[in-house]
Amino acid sequence: MSSLICMKFGGTSVADAERIKRAARRIVEKREAGHSVVAVLSARGKTTDELITMAQEVSAAPDPREMDMLLSSGERISCALCAMAINDLGHRAISLTGSQAGIVTDESHTKALILDVRADRIRAALEEDHIVLVAGFQGVSQTAKNVTTLGRGGSDTSAVAVAAALGAEVCEIYTDVSGIYSADPRIVPDARKLETVSFEEMLEMAASGAGVLQLRSVEYARNHGVRIHCRSSFDSEPGTFVVAEGETMEQPLITAVTHSVEEARITLTGVPDEPGAAARIFEAMADANVNVDMIVQNEPVAAGGQAEISFTVPRDDMRAAVAALESLRGASYAEITAHENTGKVSIIGAGMRSHPGVAAKVFGVLAREGVNIDMISTSPIKISCVIERDHVESAVQALHSAFELSGEGTIAVEEPFRAST
Ligand code: ADP
Ligand code: ASP
Ligand code: MG
To answer: Residues whose CB is under 5 A from ligand 3 (ion)?
Structure first.
C-alpha cells in the first residue's frame, strides 16, 4: 500500500461550510499526491461548548454517560459533512464514529483513556481505496460498550492513536496557528514559531497549558513513536515537528512560556502531621477522577502543629474535588478554601537543566510586574508559578520578553485575536 498519512483538523478548521470544503480539498490533494489518507476531525467551531451548555440547561449535574452521547455527536457531524464534500470532489470517502473506527477506551466518561485501536475497519476501507474520516474525541468503552469521550482537545489524541495503529508516516495536526510557538501567539503576537520541539519539552508545555496539542496526544506519540507535524490549515508552510530529544536542532536555554487560566487552587488547613494524612486526601481526589497538578505542603514548624496542604486542579473539576473532600473534614483537615480565579505561568527549556539562576530571574520578572506568586513548582526543565488569573497575560508577556524569545514578525494567526479565555 502507498504511504499513509493521518491528518487532523481542529474545530476552527472545520467551523463552517467553506472551511469544511477547504479541509476536504486538502485531504483530496494529499490523496492525489499518492498517499492513503485517514483524517480525524473535531467538532465545528464552538460546537462542543454549545453542547455542554445545552446539557447544563436541562440538568445541574448531567449524567456522564449521557454527556458523552451528547458530546460525541459534534465530531460525527463534521465527519459526515466532510465525507459529502470529498465525494463531490470525485473521491470516495467514508466517515466512521470512534467506536466504528475501533477506538477502545477505559470506562471513565468525559476523560477516557484509549486502551487499544482495533483498526480493521479503517484498513478495509483504505484497501477499497476510500478516504477514511474518523470522528475525533471519542471511543467505545471496553467493558460496558458505552460511548466515551477523551477530554477537551481529545481529537489530537484520536489522531495520534489512529496514526500509531496504522503505522502512518506522519500525523499532521492542522490548526488555526502555523505551528507551535514560544508562547501562545494570541497573547504574545511576536512569539517565535519553533521548527522542532522535543517530546520532553512538548510534554511540559502541554501539561502547563499550551492547548495546541492535548497532553495525552504527546504522551501517546512519544510512547508509540508517532511523528507529529503541527501546522496551519490555512496555508501550506511547514509548521512544527515534535521530535525525539536528540533530533531537535534548537537548544536554547528557554524554549517557551506557557500559561493556563483554567486552574483552581484548594487549600486545606489543620491537616494532622502524621503518616497517611496526604494519602487520604489524594486518594479521595483519585477516586473522584480529579487530576491534581501542583501540590505544596510544609511540615509545621512548631512541634505538634498542624500542616497546610495546597494543590491545584482543573477549574472544571473544582466542585467535584471539594465535594469529594467533604467526607474527610474533621479527621483529615479542619478548613477548606477554594480559589477559582487562579492561573499559572511556566517557562520551559531543556537548557535550564545546566544553568543556575533561571528561577531567580523568573521571580524577579514577576516581582517587577507586581505579580504575587501563590505556589511554585519545578521540574528539571520547567518552572511554574501559580498566580492570580488576571495577571497571567502580563506575566506571560513580561517573561517572554525578559528571556528574549521573540521571533521576526511571523504572522501566526489568520484571524483577529479572540479574547483569551
Ligand atoms: P484546534 O481546534 O485546532 O485543536 P486549539 O484551540 O485546541 O485548536 O489549539 C490551537 C490554539 O492553541 C491556538 O489558537 C493558540 O491560541 C493556542 N496555543 C496555546 N499555546 C500555544 C503555543 N505555544 N503555540 C501555538 N499555539 C498555542
Ligand atoms: N471537540 C472537542 C473539544 O472541543 C475535542 C477537540 O476539539 O479536540 O474539546
Ligand atoms: Mg485542540
So the answer is: 10, 153
pLDDT tens for 24-37 read 999 999 999 999 99
CATH class of segment(s) 4-247: alpha beta
Residue whose entry in the numeric block shows the C-alpha cell 479565555: 421
Q: What are phi and psi of 124, to 5 degrees?
A: -60, -40
Q: Which of 89-98, 155-164, 273-282 has the lowest mean pLDDT?
A: 273-282
Of residues 3, 27, 26, the one with CA closest to residue 94: 27
Ligand at minimal distance from the CA of 177 is 1
In this structure, which topology does domain 258-402 adopt according to CATH?
VC0802-like (3.30.2130)
Distance from residue 11's CA to the centre of ligand 3 (Å) = 7
pLDDT over 70 at 1, yes or no: no
State the pLDDT at residue 252.
Answer: 80
For residue 377, the SS3 value is strand
- Residue of 173, 181, 213 lying closest to 412 (CA atoms): 181
The ligand 1 atom nearest the CA atom of 182:
23
Please say whether the beta carbons of 248 and 242 come within 8 A: no
- For the segment 132-159, what is each residue's pLDDT rounded down to a tens digit? 999 999 999 999 999 999 999 999 999 9
What are the structural domain ranges in the chain? Answer: 4-247, 258-402
Q: Residue 124 is which amino acid?
A: A
